[in-house]
Amino acid sequence: MFRRRSLPVVLVCGLWLGCGSKPFPADQLRAFIEYQVADKQLPAVSIAVVDDQETIFSEGFGEASADSVYRVGSVSKLYTDIAVMRLVEQGLLDLDAPVADALPAFHPQNDFPQDITLRHLMAHRSGLVREPPVGSYFDASEPSIAAIVESLKATRAILEPGSKTKYSNAALVVVGGVVEAAAGKPFADHMREQILAPLGMTSSSYGRLPALEARIPKALMWTYDREFPAPTFDVLVPAGNLYSSMPDQARLLQAIFRRGAPLLEPETFAKMLEPQFDPQARFGLGFAMGTFQGHKRIGHGGAVYGFSTELAALPDEKIGVVAAASRDFTNDVVGRIANRALELTLAWKAGEEIPPWTPPQPVDAATRQAAAGLYASESGTVRLVDRDGELWSEGIPYHRVLIRRDGEGFVTDGRLTSGTPVTIEDSAVTIGETRYQRVPDDEPPAAKEAWGELIGEYGFDHNILFILERQGRLCALVEWLPMYPLVERGPDDWAFPDFGLYHDEQIRFRRDSSGRVTAAVMAGIEFPRRPGAEDGRTFRIEPLKPIAELRAIADAAEPPARPEGLLEPDLVDLAPLDPTLRFDIRYATTNNFMGERFYPVARARMQRPAAEALVRAHLRLRPRGYGILVHDAYRPWRVTKMFWEATPEAMRDFVANPANGSIHNRGAAADISLYDLQTGKPALLPSGYDEFSSRAFPEYPGGTSRRRWLRELLRAAMEAEGFSVYPYEWWHFNYADAEKYPILNEPLTAP
Fold first, then answer.
1. What is the DSSP letter of 655?
2. CA distance 386 to 390
3. FRET label pair with 706: which of 91, 282, 388, 468, CA 20 to 30 Å apart?
């Protein structure tokens, strides 16, 4: 359901009428946004559309109202840059003087003859690192602007100032430091008094004010295998920490259409829209430059923990839009919404009609099944995956991108990217301009042995850096979603490619005295290595209660009542069904996550139809050289009760709630892995069995190509026989008819 809350909008020439007679096509824009909110699972979206000095459309969608408050991310930079230009007009700053003249604490090492100036900083031509060592996007400590500027002394200009566009948050924090020094007061106070207040932006602040708190919608982080609430710490204040409503942001658009008034003189504002250092430059002084349907387009995007924003203006036509969503890394979606608003507004002002937009549809099952497989080109490989009723492309720079049918063809249509044409043929697929030929989907070769000690997770709970192997290359998965193939400069020294957020920067791995990798220093920021279970080592927890107490609790408890109409149990042993099945029943030993024995015998039983389906899946794997290794099947309810009572709450996704019972208790689930038919050895997958970590998730993108391929091989065989994988454990498969069987508490005994 959509909960759309609207505020009154300012009307143009009557009831949303342009200078002609047709109303603004609000219903078309509304339908487009409602589709994106539902399809992309956006908790909240708000938008304001401006025609010169009037707001012609302002609404909230999902959990939002029109005046909900969002973190607008790097849109914050525009206001910081405007503050500089205001001080330039007052004769307090010089755009082309060395920054150190205005801010003596600014002293990064610069081996180039050109001093870094405010013009360089504001146009993203400073050559500075993207993130400062202290107070970076990853730093939750909320340091002062002065501390961030001071930390840049430990950095080096990596490009000659003026030579190349390199987007830098560090640069705009320095700009904020210059504003603070020139104004002689704290940055946030100056911005409130001299920029926000004159614009009438009463719902905006460079920080999370209590007065705005109730108007901030729920914000989500996400990656390919999970989502979680967004952190709320302040970050890079002058570069990305503005909180604001869309009606407030509309006031900046109106000032743009007044050529800077009341903040700047027209001549000063015009300089901000001039490309800097190169007629084809992507940036003026703060504003990103581009075109839209042949019209000059200016603006800025914003991305900060849990929020995505797009502010766009067509200055010659005096049309603008600002939109924000409360889900991280959905800038492509918000950009689509902004572009649709601009398209509709242009047509409305011209008295033209635009045909209703038709949303792309999921690819039909026959096409998905035929297209699934591996494809290769000179630039790399992509894998098309048929999953959950949709067709996905896996590759670089994104691990997974959604493909849908659009009319007679196909396009990308996900949160990360959309509108890229896709052509699907019998033996090839073309994505954008790259054509890939189908190739055998054979087991990938093992990753280089030397990479094994680098592969893993680094950083912080709120922002993990993944080092993984993909397509035979060592890659970095940064900020949860972008994937970058790395170029080796030395054993522990790797360079980012010449695209994305961190081009011209490096990752260096740090080791302790024993040679163990302890950290990845990415673009000058240290990401400590995160603990992870080593291959072959059983994951363990510290039970919340002693084992004897757990047994007593379980013995005294009763399973959920059995409803009427369920099937009679028909548990059969797996071992006699196929002598090539192998078994490692961990709960009949102490080699499990609690280090205790729970079953008196090593026995695996399942309901007959599920058992027979598992054997068929086992036989499917034989041509690939693998068989099924069974870890667990039927589990008495009392054991599930013990697991639940023993496990810390933060880990309970990995154990079933006894109030509901487990599919294991019904005899219709199996915990399984693979073994190599030739060697008899267990296969290595992205995590160990019963490892309570994100590495256990079936969609976990880390590790190596071979391990992920084996995980997919097992999943495909089981799904083909009517099983589904549990969302938190690649090894746990539930049979399709599981709910038809009762919860059982019969002990496992010898046959």
1. S
2. 6
3. 388
Q: Spell out the residues 6+ positions from residue 458 whose beta carbon is closer than 8 angstroms to its own.
A: 464, 465, 466, 467, 519, 520, 522, 527, 528, 529, 530
Q: Do residues 223 and 481 lie in contact, with contact meaning Cβ atoms separated by under 8 Å?
A: yes
Look up residue 444 and give its two tokens. 């990938």
CB 371 within 8 A of CB 391: yes
DSSP conformational letter for 440: -
Tokens of 612: 């027979």
Q: Residue ranges of the chain with pLDDT lower than 50?
A: 1-20
**Alpha carbons 291 and 482: distance in angstroms, whole number:** 25
**Contact status, residue 155 vs residue 107, Cβ threshold 8 Å:** no
State the distance between the two ends of the chain, measured CA to CA, in whole angstroms: 53
- Exposure pattern of 210-242 as b/e (b: 16+ CB <10 Å)? eebeeebbebbbbbbbeeeebbeebbbbbbbbb
d(CA 497, CA 503): 6
Q: What is the pLDDT at residue 657?
A: 97
Q: Please tell me the distance from the alpha carbon of residue 349 to that of residue 336, in angstroms, as a whole number.
A: 20
- Structural contact between residues 99 and 117, judged by C-beta atoms closer than 8 angstroms: yes
Lookup result for tokens 């609690």: 594
Distance of alpha carbon 159 from alpha carbon 97, whole angstroms: 19
Nearest to 72 by CA among 254, 336, 322, 417: 322
Are the beta carbons of 709 and 444 closer than 8 angstroms? yes
pLDDT at 22: 85
Any idea which residue has 């058992």 for tokens?
611
Alpha helix positions (H), 66-196: 76-89, 99-102, 118-122, 145-151, 169-183, 187-191
Spatial separation of the C-alpha atoms in residues 25 and 347, rounded to whole Å:
9
The tens digit of pLDDT for each residue in 443-496 reads: 999 999 999 999 999 999 999 999 999 989 999 999 999 999 999 999 899 999
pLDDT for position 11:
39
- DSSP labels for 382-426? EEEEEETTEEEEE-SSBS-EEEEEETTEEEEESSS-EEEEEEE-S
Q: Residue 514: count other Cβ atoms within 10 Å of its Cβ.
A: 6
pLDDT of residue 537: 85
Beta bridge partners of 406: 409
Looking up tokens 């020139």 gives: 182
Q: Do 674 and 685 contact (CB within 8 A), yes or no?
A: yes
